[in-house]
């Protein structure tokens, strides 16, 4: 991954391929003018105090996401200056929004693919600003090159022809000898490395990533970071009565797995359980998806990837909280052995489920994992899943929905998500929608009313959460996989959605801020 250093050099003396400075849109009396953000002073001096005017002549406005490149003058060791737009100048205390800094740094880092080193002289008014810039730059520098060989077909993966990301981010304006800044940098590196590993898993083609191979990755990470890992294979799942996981996975060549990752801290007072949907490929099963809907279904394990990344990050940061991750892994394939619409599954909880649509499979594997997680009596459970297209219709491609059995818990997660820069929205669980899942054959059906389908799925999952346990459901179907052009620090493909929210939730739980 891209290296991060807290540089002691000034912008004028740093030897790098490029310098990144911030520019903003003027407001009030300066409305319409380009404003240089703090951190750009030395660069502006090298331009004779005319940098803002030159950038305006080139068409720069300071709008968020805008990048303007220009050759550096004498007086700077770097040959190129990149002006990154931050949006409007802050109207309060001069502090720029952390997400604006994160996105500007990400955009700049993406534009520097192939470069060895870049200095980031964006405004650093606090430790939080430095951490946001570091996160954005490291996330933006991500590239998935494992399958790019260029013209040399015999070359190793990520070799010839691969466009390698920016090699080093030098963060200017931070305090390299300050413990708080050092800790913020270490946190950013640990979390982004795990987010990028989650992105790699999401982007890996399903012929290489299937339940068994995903479980092997988790086991290796557990060994490296002191996390206890337990893997239940298909035989153990059948023996244990995990009807949801077995039912979804029985049509595939690669059998299902339930993976438990347990990070524990000797002084922890709280336990947080995370459950991730891990459908490594979703064809829809017998209820086959229509043409045009299969090509990106390798991403249907994004929830499990997020849970995996969060547990490893918690271990790397040594958080004073127990975090247990449950990866519900299966392939959903059509075959002569596949579950059929109309079949009834005997779930791990003891409930029976009539399967009306085999493409509503995520809730089936999650139900078994939620029941199993509940047996350990954690203080709270959060499940994460690319669960429904209905949530994408409701909230679009960049926002995930939050449902919960506790309004205060839902509000806390929403506030945390907004704080870390992940767009989310609290959603209800209307009791009247439950009746649509009544089945004349089983205890419950896996489908209900079509309208409000994302909420119906949440109500289904709620049935499998242990009594008295605070639970929330994050439907990340929109933001988990980005099919459009990259923007900010968001790449094309897997994004690692929800990891930052879950890590912050674990930190808040460790600090006792969630009660």
What does this structure look like?
It is built from 14 helices and 20 strands. It is α/β, with parallel strands linked by helices and 515 residues long. The strands form four sheets. Strands 8-9-11-10-14-18-15-16 form an eight-stranded mixed β-sheet, sandwiched between helices. Strands 1, 2, 3, 4, 5, 6 and 7 form a seven-stranded mixed β-sheet that branches. Strand 12 and strand 13 form a beta hairpin. The longest helix has 25 residues. The radius of gyration is 24 Å and the shape is elongated.
In angstroms, what is the radius of gyration?
Answer: 24 Å
Strand order of the largest sheet: 8-9-11-10-14-18-15-16
The number of helical elements comes to 14
Segments where pLDDT lies below 50 for 5+ residues?
none
What general outline do the C-alpha atoms trace?
elongated
Quote the average pLDDT. Answer: 95
By helix and strand content, what is the structural category? alpha/beta
What assembly state would you assign to the polypeptide chains in this entry?
single chain
> How does the major sheet shape up?
8 strands, mixed
Please bin the fraction of helical residues.
25-40%
Q: Give the beta-strand count.
A: 20
Portion in strands: 15-25%
Q: What is the end-to-end distance? A: 36 Å
